[in-house]
Amino acid sequence: MKVRRSERLVDMTQYLLEHPHTLITLPFFAKRYGSAKSSISEDLGIIKKTFIARDKGFLETLPGAAGGVRFIPKMSESSALEIVEELCKRLSEKDRLLPGGYVYLSDLLGEPELLRQVGQIIASKYSDQKIDAVMTVATKGVPIAQAVAYHLNVPFVIVRRDSKITEGSTVSVNYVSGSSERIEKMELSKRSLKRGSRVLVVDDFMKGGGTVNGMKGLIEEFESELAGIMVFAESTFSGRRMIDSYDSLLCVEAVDSQTKTIKVVPGNYFK
Amino acid sequence: MKVRRSERLVDMTQYLLEHPHTLITLPFFAKRYGSAKSSISEDLGIIKKTFIARDKGFLETLPGAAGGVRFIPKMSESSALEIVEELCKRLSEKDRLLPGGYVYLSDLLGEPELLRQVGQIIASKYSDQKIDAVMTVATKGVPIAQAVAYHLNVPFVIVRRDSKITEGSTVSVNYVSGSSERIEKMELSKRSLKRGSRVLVVDDFMKGGGTVNGMKGLIEEFESELAGIMVFAESTFSGRRMIDSYDSLLCVEAVDSQTKTIKVVPGNYFK
C-alpha cells in the first residue's frame, strides 16, 4: 500500500524523533511506505530543513549501500540560554532556600517537560562525540541521566551509596565527600558497564565535587574513560574543588539565609 | 512568513509529540505558521489519521473559542503485548538469576528506548483518567515513573527510605516490608505533592506489596487519592499480598536456582 507524502512526513518525523542517534536506512522507509527511495529522499530533505529552521537538530545523511539517515538532536546555545535563564528565575524563588544553604530542586527534577529540555541541552554538547553510557548517582541525578541518555540513545547506569541485593555483584570505591570531608563508599553493579566505555557523568548538584570525583574513580575501576562531567547546578565553593573540568547549566552564586535570597546565574556551559 | 504544508506537518507533529496531554489552540498554530485556521484544521486531520494508522495515539479536538487540539498517547493492547512478550524473553535469560531468587533488571531499566515504550504502555491505561502525579520509591522505580509522567504530562514524585537534607520537611510513614516482615520507614518531601491529588503509583518490582502499601499510606497522609498501582514486574508470592488491586506488565512465575531457569509471562495488565 502506497502512503501519501503528507502522511509519510508525519510518520517519518515521529519515527526519527523517537530514534535519535540511530541509523535508519532508506530501504526501511521505502518499504514502510511502499514508496520509491527518491521520494523518501525528498521527504527527508523537507524534514531536515524544518528541523534546522525550528532548532530541533539535524539529519545526518550517509550515502552508499549501507547508508541512510540519522537524527541528531541539537539545540542552539541561544535557545538553551533562554531556557536556562527562565530556570535561574525559578531557582531564585525565596521559598527554595533550605536550612544549611541548600536549594530545593526536587520539584523541578520531577517535571517531565523540563527534563526533556535539560536532556536536549546537555546531549547537544556531546552530540558529535562517542558516548557509550551516561552515569549518575542515586537518587536525584537519575531523571537527568535518563533525559540525557534518551537524546544520545545510550544506556544510563546508576551508582548507589547503599548496596542492594537486586544489583548482583558490584564494584565499589571509597571517596571523600568534598563538603563534609567524610569518607564514603559508592558502588556500581559489575555487569552494568562494559570495559572500555566512554562515559558521560551527570548529576543534579555539585558543591565540592566529591561525589563526581568518586564516579571518576569508579570509571577507572571499570577500565573506562571519562568523556565529560555535566551538572544541573553548582554552587560556589570556598574550598578547593576536587575536579577541575566540568560544565554546569546553573550556578548558585550566593545564598543569604537572613534575607532568604538566592542568586542564580547561568553556569559555565555558556562560557 | 507563510510556512508550507509539508513543513507545517513536520513541525506540528514534533510539537504535538513533545506536548502530550496539553491543549494547543488553533490560533497558536495559525500564528506560528502564518496560516489560516482552516489550513491548520486540515493539517491536524492528516496527523490524526496517521497517528491512528500507526498506533501512536489520537488527537482530541475541542471545538469553540477556547478549543484546540490535544495529543493523547495511546498504544493498543496488541502492540503492547508484542513489546511485553519480547521483554518476557529477555527477562528469562539465565544469567539474570541472582542469589535469593531475585531477577536482575537494572540494565533494562537503563535503556531509554525501552523505558519510552513502557511509559507509553502504562500511560495508555490511564490516558482517559484524571491523574495529577506519578509516585514511586527510590531508586529503581524512578526511570519508570519519569517515562510514565512524560506521556501523561504530569510531575512525578520520589518517595525515599532515607531522609536527605535537600528534601526540606518531609512526611513519613512506617510500613511492613512484605517479604521480610520488617518495619521500615519511607518519606516524601512535604511540598512535593498537593492535597487532593489523584496519584498513580508505579514501581519496578513487587513481591509482597509492602512498599506499594507504604506508598498508599503516604498518599492518605497527603489527603490524596490513589488512582492506580502499576508495577513493571511482579513475582508470584506465597504469602498474603498486602494490596488487592494492581496491574503488572510482567509476571515472574517461577525461578529455579538449581537449573538457573526463570519463567516470565505477561502480567495481569493483559487480563
From TrEMBL, chains A, B:
<dbReference type="InterPro" id="IPR050118">
    <property type="entry name" value="Pur/Pyrimidine_PRTase"/>
</dbReference>
<comment type="subunit">
    <text>Homodimer.</text>
</comment>
<keyword id="KW-0804">Transcription</keyword>
<comment type="similarity">
    <text>Belongs to the purine/pyrimidine phosphoribosyltransferase family. PurR subfamily.</text>
</comment>
<dbReference type="InterPro" id="IPR000836">
    <property type="entry name" value="PRTase_dom"/>
</dbReference>
<dbReference type="InterPro" id="IPR029057">
    <property type="entry name" value="PRTase-like"/>
</dbReference>
<dbReference type="InterPro" id="IPR036390">
    <property type="entry name" value="WH_DNA-bd_sf"/>
</dbReference>
<dbReference type="GO" id="GO:0003677">
    <property type="term" value="F:DNA binding"/>
</dbReference>
<dbReference type="InterPro" id="IPR010078">
    <property type="entry name" value="PurR_Bsub"/>
</dbReference>
<dbReference type="Pfam" id="PF09182">
    <property type="entry name" value="PuR_N"/>
</dbReference>
<feature type="domain" description="Bacterial purine repressor N-terminal">
    <location>
        <begin position="4"/>
        <end position="73"/>
    </location>
</feature>
<dbReference type="Pfam" id="PF00156">
    <property type="entry name" value="Pribosyltran"/>
</dbReference>
<dbReference type="InterPro" id="IPR036388">
    <property type="entry name" value="WH-like_DNA-bd_sf"/>
</dbReference>
<feature type="domain" description="Phosphoribosyltransferase">
    <location>
        <begin position="108"/>
        <end position="247"/>
    </location>
</feature>
<protein>
    <submittedName>
        <fullName>Pur operon repressor</fullName>
    </submittedName>
</protein>
<keyword id="KW-0805">Transcription regulation</keyword>
<dbReference type="InterPro" id="IPR015265">
    <property type="entry name" value="PuR_N"/>
</dbReference>
<dbReference type="GO" id="GO:0045892">
    <property type="term" value="P:negative regulation of DNA-templated transcription"/>
</dbReference>
<keyword id="KW-0238">DNA-binding</keyword>
<dbReference type="GO" id="GO:0045982">
    <property type="term" value="P:negative regulation of purine nucleobase metabolic process"/>
</dbReference>
